[in-house]
Amino acid sequence: MRRGHNLLAVGDYNQAVVLDVIRRAPLGLSRVEIASDTGLSAQTVSNVTRRLLDTGLVREGGKLIVGPGKPRTLLQLVTTSRYAVGVHLDPTVVTYALLDLAGDVVADHRTLTPSAADPDTVIAVMAEEVRALLAREGVAPERVLGVGIAAPGPLDSAQGILLDPPLLEGWQHVPLREALARATGFPVVLEKDVTAAAVAELWVDSDEDRDNFAFFYYGTGIGIGLVVDHDVLRGASDNAGDMGHLMVQADGPVCGCGRRGCVGDLVVPYRLVQRAVTAGVLGPTASVDTPLDGPAEHIDFDETDRRFTEFAAAAGRGDAGAVAICEEAATHIARALVSVVNLLDIDHVVCGGPFWRRIAPVLRERIEALVAGDPALIPRHPVAVESSTIGEDVAAVGAGCLVLDQTLSPRPSALLIAG
Amino acid sequence: MRRGHNLLAVGDYNQAVVLDVIRRAPLGLSRVEIASDTGLSAQTVSNVTRRLLDTGLVREGGKLIVGPGKPRTLLQLVTTSRYAVGVHLDPTVVTYALLDLAGDVVADHRTLTPSAADPDTVIAVMAEEVRALLAREGVAPERVLGVGIAAPGPLDSAQGILLDPPLLEGWQHVPLREALARATGFPVVLEKDVTAAAVAELWVDSDEDRDNFAFFYYGTGIGIGLVVDHDVLRGASDNAGDMGHLMVQADGPVCGCGRRGCVGDLVVPYRLVQRAVTAGVLGPTASVDTPLDGPAEHIDFDETDRRFTEFAAAAGRGDAGAVAICEEAATHIARALVSVVNLLDIDHVVCGGPFWRRIAPVLRERIEALVAGDPALIPRHPVAVESSTIGEDVAAVGAGCLVLDQTLSPRPSALLIAG
Predict the structure, then answer these.
(1) Residue span of the structural domain in which A188 resides
(2) How far is A140 from chain B (nearest CA, A)?
(3) Which candidate, B382, B90, B317, B245, places its Cα nearest to that of A338?
(4) Is residue B413 part of a domain?
(5) Residue ranges in chain B modelled with pLDDT below 50
(6) CATH code of B143's domain
(7) What residues of chain A lie within 8 A of the CB of B335, using their CB?
(8) Are residues B320 and B245 part of one domain?
(9) ipTM of the assembly?
């Protein structure tokens, strides 16, 4: 992460340690408890909390009475003292989320991704949307810790560059992190979309036991964020989570990789819409009548988005043709998830992303049942398939959480960065 | 892990912490260095090291001269003071490895798995082999920390039970851990074979940078052990690492799961032998001429093992038919590994297991080239495909390492167990 002056303003390892224990205590913590929870000396806690009070990150709240001694003053996080912005660039839609210091979503906003525009223009529009969002919510720039951006992979995380996301035409080797930092004036964190979604789920989820799960991301493309031992799995180059080329149908259409039956090619929203048009479930349109086994180039994503809403509605009211297409998609998704469960022995799949909520009522239960009944499933425990409670914002929220995480979570590496 | 008296004899968290730093220092460590490395007080280090000297786990070695002070006595691990036994139950072969306290293999031994015998008989034979191995090496039972056993999944790790390993006929719901503990008199750790292999690789490997890799296990069945952040990934029920049902050939034969082209069914040794017999590369035999798309039941594994050696030799000398079969197998394995690399963004695959070494000269380079050239590969970095340096013993060595690991590696959970 680029660490700008805003981040360094709340930097310092001990400070992060103290902030971290305070934010995890809904009612706040006294200095005595902070010292006992962190192992820091009373003097250090006193110094650090004075600084946190001065900068307005915490405030003195109620009193705690323990035994016959003096009541202890509780220190609480001032959730409105700092903010983070999360942005999610999907080929169809750009989502913005404003998070307060507690990670709660204060405001969000969606715009269609201008597919004809070049990256520079899209980035300029993003910066303008971020500015407008902050202005609408009355958040001054100096209270913004940074911007997190979630984008499709593969990406070069060290350089902050999108390499060649298959569904974002014209976005080859775009230095998104630098460009967005320049355009907004904020430090920027870049993360792969599926990983950001998993981060959001991990941050927001109150289920402390959920240390291992997969996040099935259903956007313009699909992917799978992986959480192992309560940490997201990023891999050697931060590009983990690609499941699109898992083969799930022996006699399926030919994928861009040259093989048949890759799940990504079979179940993405524009393929379901194409199939619905071909089957006569939806009326024909100029833009989505490309051949079913053709490449994904030049697909009109705005139009697909509208038609997908129609399609999901048809399936929801029980239209036989639409349901049949969903059943086939559920079979393919379940098959891919079984491969993931077999590899990682995961007992929990959370589903979300820009297109999930619309189709979830038709897909979720079917997928869960198909996974449970798959003769190829190796582990002998149930696999829960749930919808994310965060909704369509999930990757944007995750990108914002990453900014909070970099600021609030103490980690040894921060000591190195801080020098 | 069942913690018997032998394990508890060297238990205690501080002791494990001190032993851990001593065993990582090839020349040994002085008490001053131990205190500074562990954060323990000089008094605690003095107490703990006295106990370690008394029990013979460490000894006083050379002297270290630092500045004008008194020379410091170096404490070294007595690698021959304790031992661990690793056993690997593969449907074709049972492997035994005797490890000293440093994890070095002192002796190993292989026997064919008696496929006609019931589990009780096989377990009794195992216990006899363990006793004979210890007797041959002159290791008294009181110096044995325990036995680790690696076995095919799926297993119930909490109960120590093999559930229904697909290639071990008659081994349904066998309480292997209890039975082997009873038969040998030692505490027993049970681990899935592919995970044990990954543990061995992690333990023996001197490459400190190798924090993330996959272990491609090539035994009577195949599997993939996963290492993430220098720790093996076990999953929700310790059954992670199954890759057999990854679909890799659209028009492949029908697998036991009912679908076509599962990699496990395509590339296991008995399938290659069957194909070689059908193609006339090997002469016919009574036992391996089952139909190519038939189930794996009643396969004569001893015979397959011998024929596989013939087959690998034919491929090694360039027999066109054998090489063609290997090329096809390499394609399938590479395809499955690409799925794993895409999911986990792994840049390193280590290959091993009972059948790997024989076929490695023909397969390894081909697999590496096929992975690199696969159009479905998402991460943009090279993926190294290497043979394990440990060889055919790898899962047995890993099982032994698990016993050492439980004894020597400090972990907070040990505090809870020690209660």
Answers:
(1) 83-201+395-407
(2) 39
(3) B245
(4) no
(5) 1-11, 292-293, 412-419
(6) 3.30.420.40
(7) 247
(8) yes
(9) 0.89
